[in-house]
Automatic annotation (TrEMBL):
This is DNA-3-methyladenine glycosylase II. The keyword Ligase does not apply. Residues 306-339 are annotated as: Disordered. InterPro entries: Ada-like_dom_sf (IPR035451), Ada_DNA_repair_Zn-bd (IPR004026), AlkA_N (IPR010316), AlkA_N_sf (IPR037046), Alkylbase_DNA_Glycosylase/TA (IPR051912), DNA_glycosylase (IPR011257), HhH-GPD_domain (IPR003265), HhH_base_excis_C (IPR023170). SMART domains: AlkA_N, ENDO3c, HTH_ARAC. It catalyses: Hydrolysis of alkylated DNA, releasing 3-methyladenine, 3-methylguanine, 7-methylguanine and 7-methyladenine. It comes from the Bacteria.
Amino acid sequence: MTITAFDFDLCYRAVSTKDSRFDGQFFTAVRTTGIYCRPSCPAITPKRANVSFLPTAAAAQQAGYRACRRCLPDAAPGSPLWNTRADLAARAMRLIGDGVIERGGVPALAATLGYSQRQLTRVLTTELGAGPLALARAHRAHTARLLIQTTAMPMSDIAFAAGFASIRQFNDTVREVFAVSPTTMRAEAHRVKSGSNGRPVPAVNGTLSLRLPYREPLDKAWLEWFLSSHVAPGMELWENRVYTRNLRTPHGHATTRLSFQRDHVRAELALHDMRDLAPTVARLRHLLDLDADPIGIDEALGVAPGQRVSAPELTDPDTTRLPDAGAGSPPDAETALDSVDVRRPVFSPGIRVPGCLDGPELLLRTMIGQQISVSAAATHTARLVEALGERVEGPIPLLFPTPTVIAERGAEVLTGPTRRIRSIIGAAEALASGDLALHQGRTSADLRRDLLALDGVGPWTADYVTMRLLADPDVLLNTDLVVRQGAAVLGIDLTDTARWAPWRSYLSMHLWKAALTDRADRSKAAKSTSSKASAEA
């Protein structure tokens, strides 16, 4: 896609109908006012002759437009294109969102992607309407707005926390993008909060409460089940439907509390270093797959708006048994498949594919969980974290240990088959030495190849890590026992899935949920029958 590839009629129709589904997928630049908006902006729809459509906020800013202060286009969910596309531009956007340019400049971004700075700039300008510096500048402006409006931090601190090289650059950028000074923006935010009886602006630096927007629908029950069933005590906590955990950030660490609200995810962040705000928010959005286009995905998978599969019981340990990770199905798989009832496919609208907060942690935890249940994997992970994790202040005491520490001391703590322990140590050594790079700028094919080269990593583990690390939408976990059981329950032939492309990662989640829900239903039925038999006796 290039900056001229948009269907003008389709985009204008979305703007005319205020269709929020397209927020973040493109931006409307209005020539007569000099502003750019999200498609659902409540302002009067501009005339066709006065608008153009651009793929990024940076492209609009580069063309001299300023952000609409009514619809706040930078606050829209991110574009799903950066996940569905695997080209250079999309991979660069993922890394820019993670703050690579703020930490190492354009040279670091180009080196990570394996291109020259000149070639990278040319591709991004052609594809996205702006070069890497302009794209990073748009991200900095968004971070600055968040800090100005939601904290009481001094403006000088905000300038450097957002990644600006100087206070002057910060002031100039905010004025250019939002057409107001930083102090005016904060004063307006105070008036809005006061008028709507909103929460007061926090006075403590490093602590934030943010709204993470998403596109409806969202299968909250599925994400809640996934998060809660994988919790490793010591570094994670699930309590009162709130997910709390520590995570490593580029400049230190952070603690986050996530809860699902009616139209957003509430994220409460305690940051060790405020420069980590933008990458932390990007990683949280990636964890929950909040930039997905669920309506488009549901339409492709044939999900009717009224369809619904209930979530697996969170308290039922039988629903958290997961498959052999990397070695295919166990010997009794065919018997398990023969025992399920075949039903007409019924999928839940808005299902998401959970991502991750840390690539090395994802791989090592996945390897720890090979051949055992999710609950057992959580126990083994908790033991590792307790012994080798870094202690931090806050409600959760530990961070997941670094690959270096696991490579050096993991053998003292890890238990289980000798080969698996050796494989985990080997993977940690590859990560610690830099021989294996896990970041969102990689292609699926290259990442999968490198993962399969590791001892003890089979197709399931490679596919699972690739799907979650890169948000690859088209990974079918067809060797997964639970996915196969779900396919049997719903009557889906896993040898003929071309019609589901490019959304087979989402199909895998639907099948996973269907199988786990079927197990929960069977368990309930068995308990009910047993209770009736006991009562009659």
